[in-house]
Amino acid sequence: GENVEQHPSTLSVQEGDSAVIKCTYSDSASNYFPWYKQELGKGPQLIIDIRSNVGEKKDQRIAVTLNKTAKHFSLHITETQPEDSAVYFCAASVPGGYSTLTFGKGTMLLVSP
Amino acid sequence: EPEVTQTPSHQVTQMGQEVILRCVPISNHLYFYWYRQILGQKVEFLVSFYNNEISEKSEIFDDQFSVERPDGSNFTLKIRSTKLEDSAMYFCASREYPTGNQPQHFGDGTRLSIL
After folding, report:
1. What is the pLDDT tens value at each position of chain B, 115 positions in all?
2. In this structure, how many other beta carbons lie within 10 angstroms of the beta carbon of residue B69?
3. Distance from CA of A16 to the nearest CA of B (A)
4. Separation in Å, CA of B101 to nearest CA in chain A
5. How far apart are CA B60 and CA B42, in angstroms?
6. Inter-chain residue contact A34 with B31, CB threshold 8 Å
7. Cβ pair A43:B99 closer than 8 A
8. B91 with A34: Cβ contact below 8 A
9. Cα(B75)–Cα(B115) distance, integer angstroms
10. Of A45, A81, B34, B44, which has the maximum CB count within 10 A?
11. How far apart are CA A88 and CA A38, in angstroms?
């Protein structure tokens, strides 16, 4: 089955810096890659997703890039703010009706003012 | 914005007891999921449900687990005889379309503590 590796496990940045979180996946058939943000005591909240027919997607300060050949995708957060502090999970799913998500282990992002 | 709601937020149960976790998916969604997150670990898939039957389940979802959609709005996860290792956050998720890769929306979870 699919395996998703995520790194780093923790990331500390200063406010205003950029943050990059990287994930690799094992199943070349995977074609959907969402990113979730999980704040303390909350469920995962979708922040951005990308499908395999595009290489990059951007939404304000957040962008995701996908390299299908290398089977890796990355989350980029620019101009980080303290409220960006949370655990970020990448995930992947293969085509098909049920679209089960396989998650990475998560990255704890800490943005210091 | 519509959201997935889960109750209770925290459930404490003695080992061996039955527990039912409840979820109300987003109203026009057709696919429902349960995931589990053991403290400090990744979110793991348990089961998906569509058209009143299980679509897919993981090896974690053994005979002690069952899911049900008892009415038009609720989606439940039952654990018949809880074990210590069932202690985790349980997340419900739902998705709108039955085919293709569309976003899954998660609830805030139920923290299950087995004593």
Report:
1. 779 999 999 999 999 999 999 999 998 898 999 999 998 888 999 999 988 899 999 999 999 999 999 887 899 999 999 999 999 999 999 998 766 677 899 999 999 999 9
2. 17
3. 28
4. 6
5. 14
6. no
7. no
8. no
9. 25
10. B34
11. 6
